Amino acid sequence: MAVELSNKFACIIPPCPLLASCLTGSFSFFFPKATRSLRRWCAASNIFSLVIAMFVSFVLFWRQTATHSIQQYLWARIPKSDFRLKIGLLIDPLTLVMSILVTTVGLPVMVYSDSYMCHDQGYARFYAYLSLFAASMLGLVFSPNMIQIYIFWELVGMCSYLLIGFWFARSSAANACQKAFVINRIGDFGLLLGLLGIYWITGSFDIYELCDRFLELTSSGVVNPIFANTIALLLLLGPIAKSAQFPLHVWLPDATEGPTPISALIHAATMVAAGIFLIARIFELISTLPPAMSTISWVGGVTTLSGATLALAQKDLKRGLAYSTMSQLGYMVLALGIGASQSALFHLITHAYSKALSFLGSGSVIHSMEKVVGYSPDKSQNIFFMGGLRKYMPITGITFPSGTLSLCGIPPLACFWSKDQIITESWLNSPYLGLIASGTAGLTAFYMFRIYLLTFEGDFRANQINYIESYMSSPSEYVIHSWGRAQLDLLTRRTGNNFTSADIKREEFTKIVNFATVPISKRDQSYSERNLLYPQESNFCMVLPLIILTIPTLFGGLIGIDSTQKGYGLNFLLDWLISILSFSEINKQFEKLAEVLISSIPSLSLSLIGLSISFKVYGQFGKIFNTKDNEKLKRGGIVNTFLVSVRDWSMSRGYIDYFYKIYFVRSLILISKFILHFDQWIIDGLINGTGALNIFGGESIRHAKNGRISQYLFGLIIGTIFLLQLVVDFPIPPLP
After folding, report:
1. Rounded CA gap, 339 and 18, in Å?
2. pLDDT at 565 over 60
3. Most buried of 160, 384, 633, 662 (most Cβ within 10 A)?
4. For the chain, percent of residues with pLDDT exceeding 90
5. Which letter does DSSP use for residue 500 in this model?
6. How far apart are CA 525 and CA 329, in angstroms?
7. Cα angle vertex 181, ends 180, 187, to 5°?
8. How far apart are CA 453 and CA 680, in angstroms?
């Protein structure tokens, strides 16, 4: 009875947000004016539907922990001779954990969106898309067969297309959603081929059944190993594109063109999490194929390192977080490739809450910056326009560092525990992968703490930059260097003065620097009389989700520690809380915690080194310019050249987009033009030429047939004479 009741409860989880999305979308389409006046009720209905799904997910998870059972609820069948497809739900630990993750991240995002999107005309449409996104992801995780997974997989991609291009009037957003769509089509085509191949081998789409049959056939040697690995790699092509793995990662940074709440949902619990989930779901299938496992581990390793290096010098706040997501997803794929599937899922969960907190915190910052610099992503998302925001936005300034330090791998925050497990497993599997994972931990600490320092510490720079722009008539992106130093070429570029002497150039630049660093109120009385704007803390609906997400970011990692590696229980947090009531157990818990920290010293030391370097470079970034530091960097020689190369690599996105544009986009355009001209001049030319010839012949015959018998007789005589002449000149040979 309990099992049947649980299955019935599971049946309402995906339909809840789906029903809310359909009602909201239909109501806004058929009754647009009424929707504008009742849009808050539409938002409330979508939020309430996700609350129901979250509550049911927790109830099922609680029962599953007690029964440890795997349940399937199948309510429909499609029989056709040998082909039989069962539609239903699969309830196992992976399903319920992912369901809780989607709902608990999606709910704060929906609450947050109420304030973030309140002035947008597409408010109701945005909530309809959000609920459809959540319903698609929930349908994906509850799918018991590959056909259902593929259908919901495509729905997730469609929702991401709609939400990334939500502000489709902006060309950048329209291009970003098309880019995401095209890149994911490449992966989805490989996934489709893999599904057809796996069905051809096993004759089944049921996940557990096809995994068992595939394992049996490969172990007995019935299936060619090369063919089996090819099918596995085709299956993995879909997750590689969906989870933004190298080299199909180029869509993820541009996906930040959508509203910030959807960026949080994509990067935390839906779009990119779908790829990790699918690899974990078919992990039993690919784990028997060492070449496929090795390939996926190295794809994850390269993605981890490349994502970290691309994030080092980003000026855009959301784009820096996007490359951080790419790097952390590489950790998960790397862990799956070396067989540490539980560590990968553990990091998926801890990263989801930390990254959702970071993105929603960045949205709070951007929302406040728009009131100061205007609605311009080049300014409102530029971290060099920010600074000192902790003073003006205290709640955001407290919660944002929690997500930052968690992603940096600082204990006892959530991502420390999961990342440390992956690094340990990487060293045990391959020293090269271990080196990549450990080095990336230090880079992650550097660029994440850089984002925090430039955003929340120092002085607020937007007003100063605006003043310097008005004084020098130059864009601010030439004023501040990506590595924190001023750009001395500014005078030459914007004043038109070609300084032949470096000393004169430095002297003139120092005058402007000294003038710029004087408080604005003392520079110009007319300027000081203006009402300077400063960011303000976001309202309650935006800061409440930040506070809520801070809790799992701080303590979520203590729940899922792997006892097989560390030597303590799976529920370390619960054991710790129980021990508080029993003083005799406190020493044991401290010993366990000390054991964890001691074993994590190597990876933790790299993170601390990254933090220290970041603080050294950006910690004193209180002023806009620092000529002394600039002169030191100018004299740096090899070091300065290396830093400039890294900066150019990061700002140019690793030149990968340029490579794709040159060798793929332009090649496709040339091929398309060739096909167009071939179609116009050869195919259409042949058909059109035949038609024109018929018209010309018909017109000629029409003019020749004028009804005069004398002309007909004359033509007949001429033709007869011509034929007779041919017979005389070329006689017919006799038959043998």
Report:
1. 35
2. no
3. 160
4. 43
5. -
6. 52
7. 90
8. 59
Write down how long the chain is: 736
User: Amino acid letter at 622?
Assistant: G
Measured CA to CA, the distance from residue 597 to residue 608 in angstroms comes to: 13
Sign of the dihedral defined by the CA atoms of residues 306, 311, 314, 316, in that order: positive
Question: Average pLDDT in the 352-375 region?
Answer: 91
Return d(Cα 322, Cα 305) in angstroms, integer: 14
Give the three-state DSSP class for 484. Answer: coil
> What integer best gives the mean pLDDT of the chain?
81
Measure the CA–CA gap between 245 and 179, rounded to whole angstroms. 15
Single-letter amino acid code for the residue at 583: F
pLDDT of residue 31: 87
| φ and ψ at residue 89, rounded to 5 degrees | -130, 145
Alpha carbon distances (Å) from 70 to 61, 94, 349: 12, 10, 21
* CA–CA–CA angle 247, 248, 253 (5° rounding): 105
* Complete DSSP assignment for 524-551: -HHHHTS---------HHHHHHHHHHHH
DSSP-based three-state secondary structure for 203: coil
b/e map of 673-693 (b: 16 or more CB within 10 Å)? Answer: eeeeeeeeeeeeeeeeeeeee
Residue 624 banded pLDDT, cuts 50, 70, 90 = very low
- Taking residues 202-230, what's their average pLDDT? 89
- Take residue 371 and report the two structure tokens written for it: 């009131």
Sign of the CA dihedral 669, 670, 675, 677?
positive
What are the CA-CA distances from residue 354 to residues 85, 307, 324 (Å)? Answer: 39, 17, 11
**Average pLDDT for 534-547:** 90
Res 549 pLDDT > 90: yes
Question: Span 496-506, mean pLDDT?
Answer: 45
pTM score, whole prediction: 0.83
Q: Which residue has the higher pLDDT, 368 or 471?
A: 368
- Sequence letter at residue 88: G
The one-letter amino acid code at 90 reads: L
Distance of alpha carbon 228 from alpha carbon 206, whole angstroms: 18
Would you state the structure tokens that stand for residue 363, as one six-digit string? Answer: 């949205």
Count of Cβ atoms closer than 10 Å to residue 503 Cβ = 8
Which stretch of 416-430, 491-505, 600-614 has the lowest confidence by average pLDDT? Answer: 491-505
Which of 372, 388, 369, 245 lies closest to 317, judged by CA?
369
DSSP structural state of residue 478: G
SS3 content of the chain, % helix, strand, coil (to 5): 75, 5, 20
What gap in Å lies between CA 547 and CA 395, rounded to an integer?
8
83-91 and 71-80 beta bridge pairing: antiparallel
Structure confidence at residue 688 (pLDDT): 85
| Mean local confidence (pLDDT), 162-182 | 92
Per-residue model confidence as pLDDT tens digits over 244-288: 999 999 999 999 998 999 999 999 888 899 999 999 999 999 988
